[in-house]
Request: fold
Amino acid sequence: SEDGRFLLITVWQGSERKNRVYYQDLQAQDAEVVRLLDDFDAAYGFLGNDGPVFWFQTDLDAPRGRVIAVDTRFPQRVSWKEIIPQAAETLTSVSVVNDQFIASYLKDARTQVKTFDLAGRFIREVTLPGLGTASGFPGKRTDTETFYSFTSFTTPTTIYRYDPATGESTVFRQPKVDFDPQDYEVKQIFYTSKDGTRVPMFITHKKGLKLDGNNPTYLYGYGGFNIPVLPSFSASNLVWMEMGGVYAVANIRGGGEYGKDWHEAGRKLNKQNCFDDFLAAAEWLMANQYTNRRKLAIGGASNGGLLVGACITQRPDLFGAALPSVGVMDMLRFHKFTIGWAWTSDYGSADNPEEFKALYAYSPLHNLKPGTSYPPTLITTADHDDRVVPAHSFKFAAALQEAHAGSAPVLIRIETKAGHGAGKPTSKIIEEAADRWAFLVRTLQVDVHAGGKSAGS
Reply:
């Protein structure tokens, strides 16, 4: 703890967001470790303490999150106090600075920040630079300033200083990127999925785009493990948009955009909802004249690679190209390799008869149909990926090439001396991005000199 009195021990198991919390009083001689929160029934994030009273961010009885106080002298649940109740938005993080709670929320997949006093009374909403993602606000309870980063689809990550007393933000560090953000347009729309669920999607492109149904479009998604996909700046995506491309991000179920319920609606037996949401996003883009089937590419990595694999096996006619990266493609055996056992909390397990049926119904490897014309596909993986072993991509590429009846290319790109993606050197990142966009320029027939419209013969 910040006051040095308590040792806090947090215990996790697998990838599910539940944990236990133990503590030891370092000021008491021969003090034993106390199992304060030992039911493994929710997520508990220690925020700080006021003497023996501990503050936690939790999703217990609050799928979108709240802040509670637990007095270690009276640890029974009936004695717990709610400090910041669950809001309509999803609580993602809380820090204690200048005797204030600085609480970050997700509001329709973008950041909203509110401050409260230590009794939970609302102070103000932090004014952010725009529609995007803010993170940080670290510090100690006695600090009089804190810092946060802000980024969006057209804003490179910028560091701001924040004064909790006045609520003012000032630029502390700003990168220099050779582009004009005023040349681009970002909008957020909401579309309806197959079962009537309202799903948000961000769309970014150059200003002046003609909605003539002929724009090369790259649709990205993830949809898993309670992880939200938030606005962020990418030089690689900027290159795509400079060529006239549209970049779309669908915030499908399975992620953490709307809290635990949104996640639950896209896991285990509900996983098909993720694919239905993504397919509905593709159809919305075409119905609203952004693009057409020959000009629409889809992409995703890891769990997002599974998303792409499932969508092209379920609707091979819907896409002009597919870019599944380091994807989980064999849903019957994923749990038998490296860390795959930990994903059963999200996917279920083929060892469970009921879950086997659900997994088999969408497993990309097992749903390829011989004689089907699949879209042009560039599968990417790395030879040292010990998160999602490259065998997933190897098997899917081989099976797809065998089943494929059309003339469209089905390729696999295998990076060497690399893994799942984290820590990849800049040179390899650039090379892979160049290959990815080159594949789309060729398969979608993008004329980079004509602002993205179709190339001539």
Remarks:
- Helices lie at 235-242, 260-264, 272-287, 303-314, 344-347, 353-362, 391-403, 426-443.
